[in-house]
Amino acid sequence: MPIYVYETIPARSGEKPNYYEVQQSMTDEPLTKHPCTGESIRRVILGGFGVLSGKKSASDTGSGCCEPGCCRG
What we know:
Blueprint: E1 3-8, E2 19-23, E3 41-43
Antiparallel strand pairs: 1-2, 1-3
């Protein structure tokens, strides 16, 4: 299954979004809420072979994530 990148939707001007990687089926609808925190999120469209560097991946240990296949950025 592919891993999609999501970002939080900042509540205030100037606030930076957090990024998450979520493993989903290609037929799943994009998420609108983070499965653990309930924060509003949106799927990020990456061109080509996009790499989210400096962030935890789903395979990192100790991420504190509550769902398999997702992690906190």
